Amino acid sequence: MVFFVAGSAFTVVFWTKWVGRLLVGASGGAPPRAESMRFLYRTQLGLLTVAAIVLSLAVWPIMNYLIVPYVSASAVYGAAGGFVTDNPGALVELQSTAGGFPFVALFIAIVSLFALTTIMVQFRRPVHVQPYLCGENAAELPEVSFRSPMDAPQTMTVGGYYFDRLFGESRHTRWINFAAVLLLLLLFGIAFK
C-alpha cells in the first residue's frame, strides 16, 4: 500500500510540473528545443507504446479465449452466477448477472475519439491573439509589455513556482532512494519469510 500511495502522489506532482512546463512560455519567443533522448530510453518508450497498442487490439481474443472460459468454469464466479456467454467466439460484451461491460464498443469509441481529435488538430487553423497582460498592452511592444498602474511599461515575465529549495530533486533524491531501497528489502523480506 505504501508503494501505491507514494507512487500516486509523486506521479501527480510529476505530471503537474510537466503540464506547467508545457503551458509556460513567452509569446513571440524562440520555440523550445526538442529534447534529445538516448537510444535505450527511446527504445523502451517505443516498446511500451507498441505493446499498449497490440494489447488494446488483442483485447477481444484475450477476453474470448483466456478470461471468459476461466471465469465461466470457475467454482467461485460460475457458482455465484458470474460471467455468462452464449457464443464466446463472437463475444462483444462481457455479461454477468450484475450487468455487462461492452469492451469492444468502448475500444471503438476510444479509437474514434483519438482519430477525430487528431484530424481536428491537423486541419484547424491556429488563431493568434494578444494575451491579456493585467492591463493595457503597451504600444511599443504590445505582445510582451503592458502599462502598470503608474502608466509605466512593464515587461511580461513568465515562470512557475516549483519551490526548488524545498522540493527540488537534488534535495530529496538521496534520502528517497535510500527509503525506497529499505522498503524493497522489507518487501522481499516479507515475501520470503
Overview of this structure, please?
It is a single chain. This protein has helices at residues 2-23, 39-57, 59-73, 75-79, 103-123, 164-167, 169-191; strands at 83-84, 94-96, 99-101, 145-147, 153-155. It is mainly alpha-helical and 193 residues long. Among the domains are: 38-127, no CATH class; 166-193. Strands 1-2-3 form a 3-stranded antiparallel beta sheet, with helices on one face. Strand 4 and strand 5 (153-155) form a beta hairpin. The longest helix is centred in the C-terminal third of the chain and has 23 residues, at 169-191. The radius of gyration is 26 Å and the shape is extended. The mean pLDDT is 76.
What's the structural blueprint in terms of helices and strands?
Blueprint: H1 2-23, H2 39-57, H3 59-73, H4 75-79, E1 83-84, E2 94-96, E3 99-101, H5 103-123, E4 145-147, E5 153-155, H6 164-167, H7 169-191
Antiparallel strand pairs: 1-2, 2-3, 4-5
